[in-house]
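Hallway conversation turned thread

IA: we were arguing at lunch whether anyone had actually written out CTP synthase N-terminal domain-containing protein end to end. Turns out nobody had. So, for the record, here is the sequence (85 residues) and right after it the structure tokens. Reply here if something looks off.
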Amino acid sequence: VDLDLGNYERFLDVTLTRDNNITTGKIYQSVIDKERRGDYLGKTVQVIPHITDAIQDWIKRVAKIPVDGKEGPADVCVIELGGTV
């Protein structure tokens, strides 16, 4: 988890869950789990489209989870992209 996540929680006065933190490992594990369940019907799993679709699906799903105690989706979804090369 990036240290900025805690700053976002304090600044916005919200409580985030583990789903709000997307990692490469979580995405790859979800794709591997789908492949093992047979969701891809025996097709070769590839970065495009399977991994990229999983990232988009995760963002869309998490963006709909209320974080401020209210019902319904959030007004704004902030995504921080980063990494070390």
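OS: looked through it. Residues 47-63 form the longest helix (17 residues).
IA: good, adding that to the notes. The CA atoms of residues 22 and 58 lie 8 Å apart.
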